[in-house]
Amino acid sequence: MLTRNHGRWVTVLARNCHELEKMDLEECILVTDNTLVQLSIHCPRLQALSLSHCELITDDGIRALSSSTCGQERLTVVELDNCPLITDVTLEHLKSCHRLERIELYDCQQVTRAGIKRIRAHLPEIKVHAYFAPVTPPPSVHGGGQRLCRCCIIL
């Protein structure tokens, strides 16, 4: 795995490793949509890509990836856990990835159940791994406990 300080190296790697099939960029905080554009241009054999905790990528970067040769002909796994800028639009883009077998979407706050249903309707064999935190009742319901996040209450 590349460390988070090597964002520029990903572009160099993409431009020189045209046979690349798998890439794990988890927690590479300098990965941007431009990185995905470079991968989509230079890595037509890419099959699996982990972008978990890459907080700068957006739906536009996924659009570039999904409309590329690797996206439409090879990509089988995309991991997008904890990517806060990803929305249901990303799932619309990924519909064109006909070989896609699995998407990881844990803690993607802007992805909805409806978006997941739409991609599953289009790609019925796909496995979508997502987590939706339960809605926390107002503090008054649980005796005024302190809320740390929308799924946790300290009593």
From TrEMBL:
Example GO BP: SCF-dependent proteasomal ubiquitin-dependent protein catabolic process
One GO CC term on file: SCF ubiquitin ligase complex
Residue stretches making up the F-box/LRR-repeat protein 15-like leucin rich repeat domain: 12-119
One Pfam family from the record: DUF7885
InterPro entries listed in its UniProt record: FBXL15_LRR, Leu-rich_rpt_Cys-con_subtyp, LRR_dom_sf
The protein, known as: F-box/LRR-repeat protein 2
Gene from which this protein is expressed: fbxl2
